[in-house]
Amino acid sequence: MWAIPNCRTPVLGGHEHVCLDCGARTQAYNACRNRHCPKCQALDQARWLEERKQRILPTPYFHVVFTLPSQLRPLAKQHPRPIYDLLFLAASQTLLQLGRDPQRLGATIGFTAVLHTWTRDLRYHVHLHCIVTAGGLSPDARRWVPSHPRYLFPIPVLSQLFRGKFLHGLERLHRQGKISLPAHHDPAAGFDSLRRTLYAKDWVVYAKPPFAGPKHVFRYLARYTHRVGISNHRIQEITPHAVTFSTRGRQTATLSPSTFIGRLLQHVLPKGFVKIRHYGLLASSHVYSLLAIAKALLVPAQADTPAVPSSTNNWQERLLRLTGRDLRVCPVCGSQRLADVPVPAPLPRAPPGVPL
Length: 356
Known about the structure:
Elements: E1 14-19, E2 25-29, H1 42-52, E3 61-67, H2 73-78, H3 80-100, E4 110-118, E5 124-133, E6 135-137, E7 144-146, H4 155-175, H5 190-199, E8 205-208, H6 214-224, E9 235-238, E10 243-246, E11 252-255, H7 257-265, E12 276-280, H8 290-298, H9 315-323, E13 338-343
Antiparallel strand pairs: 1-2, 1-13, 3-5, 3-8, 4-5, 4-12, 6-7, 9-10, 10-11
């Protein structure tokens, strides 16, 4: 909460661009680089997408969403890291197991999973978005096995297998003492009662129709991977007593400032937690082996074509492509003779415990 309001302000220091021809001065203050800041995701997202372009297979993709039941939300808030890790583990094992099942697909699929913890009105809602290849590589790595054109796996099978794997892992975490029930939980009920309740519940797994192709997948990843709980353009009005922001369609929500901040802080991830993970053919260990074979089978003409490197690692060129603004050119006279004058930050670093 210190980093976000001070992002790109004099508090963090920066540079002053001085045109050597006309003398115009332009301030450019440093970004906070906090991954929960809505203003600091565009360049990181663009760099990440450039790298992922080379790993998107030319095949349709399915969008599968795994959602934790509401009964697990207090536990996830109290122990976010082990619960989020378990969500990734259970969902990935579910998809990989069904993909390799000879009675289903009988192949190794590939997918990218992205963790989201919010609804449009910033309530706590833990779910995992998975972008899954509509097919996979056969066990002998000699052919591509396409899935059914309209569905990947039966939803009831996905739901039940996911539920079983998650609850098995949850019981293991409890037995190892890595999680404990929240203090407000009924002590008479205990963990066994919670587990029975969760086993009796239908877990929500949602699968959308497949994307038309890699371009649609790329566009979807651009929307979801680096998204935070709320973006600046959704905030419509701020007063000393209320914050109004858009939710879905033309609907809006109005919250008191303390409620708004409280909801926002629910979605701060544990330090160092990886919220985007790749599995199967898209796992980093398979990029130069199984993924390359799958791409060659899908597009034989590209079998001997080396991967095209990222177009640039220059953040200024990337910003130019995203916004049309070239920081290497004077906005007044168009000269490219600019000098950078450092503007020191008034504080040597962020307050204790707040990483920049």
